[in-house]
Amino acid sequence: MVENTFETNLSHRQGADSLIDSKYYDDDGRPKRTGGVWITSSHIITAVIGSGVVSLAWSIAQMGWVAGIVVMLFFSVVTWYTSLILADCYRTGDPITGPRNYTFMNAVSSILGGWNVTWCGIAQYSNLFGTAIGYTIGASISMMAIKRSNCFHDSKGADPCHVSANPFMIGFGIVQIFFSQIPNIHEIWWLSIVAAIMSYTYSTIALGLGIAKVAENRTFKGTLTGVSFGDVRKVWGIFQGLGNIAFAYSFSMILIEIQPNFFIYRKHELIILTTQDTIKSPPSEVKTIKKATNISILATTFFYLLCGCSGYAAFGDTVPGNVLTGLGFTNPYWLIDIGNAAIAIHLVGGYQVFVQPLFAFVEKEASKKWPKIDNKTFKIPIPGLSPYNLNLFRLVWRTVFVITTTVISMLIPFFNDVLGLIGALGFWPLTVYFPVEMYILQMKIPKWSRKWVFLQILSVLCLIVSAVATVGSVVGIILDLKDYKPFSVGS
């Protein structure tokens, strides 16, 4: 991923012994790490809980009470296990003195190497591009929900309140064009802090409203087998639900990169913001990561089950794809508006956190191929501030990128379908395959041994899950497109 642009060079200055003091610097010459189990756990929990939480109730509805909960526990256990084995890859070779791997990509490069690095890059950058589309859709739906909620409240339900998503997507795109001109991720750390607060806000609101609705109904809705279509759509719905849950759970690749220089808030964002890891030693980083993983997975699974089950219990098989935007909840409308505003603000920051590494990668490769593009920079004076360096290539290419993601979002504005597709495509390679393959090489596990066979079976099983989830999400998009007219007024 993005190289550390401001890491210390002390480790490369072996002659400067006076600067390398074990009281202040670790064995690699970086400033002393101070993170412990609870700090690490808090970063993981903050990173995992995000926009995927609002689709969990819908995912459970596709499978029913039994299968829905079992699938959530399956993803929880798989993510927990792959996180534990990935912890053993923090250092290459010796777990105490071996060279540190500062990023997930760094670990893949140093342990696996070869074509795996290219594949890992493709998987990660494709995931970033897809997430930019998903976030554009999610933000626009939340903004639509605010307008519809107030319309329903003012008309007391008499007005159908048809609202088009297109103006909101265009507005979101304009905002992203502006933020995208910020040179790099390190200059928008404050967006991550705001987004983290927003993430907790709407997640808590969704949970609270679900519990309140169940109390109001005085019964638990839902069925053991979930939504009943009576045809193949039931199968596609289950497959798509798998992708949605995978999107909410996939986070094992963040463990290597946990660090405190920036407040990091969800899933793959941790990969993007990382500049140096934070876990102190002794005890060994591996032990700290594993303890933090146990705490974090337990807490996250408990929260996810509460959110998903409370939403399904509140609405049963009619639960909307997004519990805060589907008008499942109508009162108190002001609280719902706050929840949706929090989602929109979160996704503004989340979009940038995802796309900035993609920007950096493309611009780095472009500057290698066309060195002169870096010279096309102009200083724009800003009263009271430092001059802004406007790079023409950055201006044009980043603007084109945002416009592209916005247009694609307008063509396929299907929140659950897109989230499911992103989760499905990223789950197996990033959460399972690379951690498993790195662990096998790192621990020198003999081929055809019991553990090797177990790990391969786990990898194949998760590949199948990712494959069917991908198919379900693609079919969902195709089916939705049959009844959707691009650039039309939504319902």
Which characteristics define this entry?
3% strand; mainly alpha; AA_transpt_TM; cell membrane; symport; 491 residues; disordered N terminus; Amino acid transporter transmembrane domain-containing protein; Amino acid/polyamine transporter I; auxin signaling pathway; two-stranded antiparallel sheet
Protein described:
A two-stranded antiparallel sheet has the order 1-2. It is built from 13 helices and two strands; from the N terminus they run ααααααααααββααα. Helices cover 63% and strands 3% of the residues. It has one domain: Amino acid/polyamine transporter I (Up-down Bundle). The longest helix is centred in the first third of the chain and has 41 residues, at 115-155. Strand 1 and strand 2 form a beta hairpin. It has helices spanning 37-48, 56-87, 104-112, 115-155, 166-180, 189-217, 233-249, 269-273, 285-315, 333-369, 392-411, 415-442, 450-482, and strands at 377-382, 385-391. It is globular, with a radius of gyration of 23 Å. It is mainly α. Helix 6 crosses helix 9. The model is unreliable at 1-20 and 259-283 (pLDDT under 50). The two termini are 40 Å apart.
Topology of this structure?
Blueprint: H1 37-48, H2 56-87, H3 104-112, H4 115-155, H5 166-180, H6 189-217, H7 233-249, H8 269-273, H9 285-315, H10 333-369, E1 377-382, E2 385-391, H11 392-411, H12 415-442, H13 450-482
Antiparallel strand pairs: 1-2
Helix pairs in contact: 1-9, 2-7, 2-9, 2-12, 3-4, 3-12, 4-5, 4-10, 4-11, 4-12, 5-10, 5-11, 6-9, 6-10, 7-12, 7-13, 12-13
Domain Amino acid transporter transmembrane: 34-260, 271-478
Transmembrane segments: 37-58, 64-90, 102-122, 128-146, 188-215, 235-256, 295-315, 335-362, 395-415, 421-441, 453-479
Pfam family, one: Aa_trans
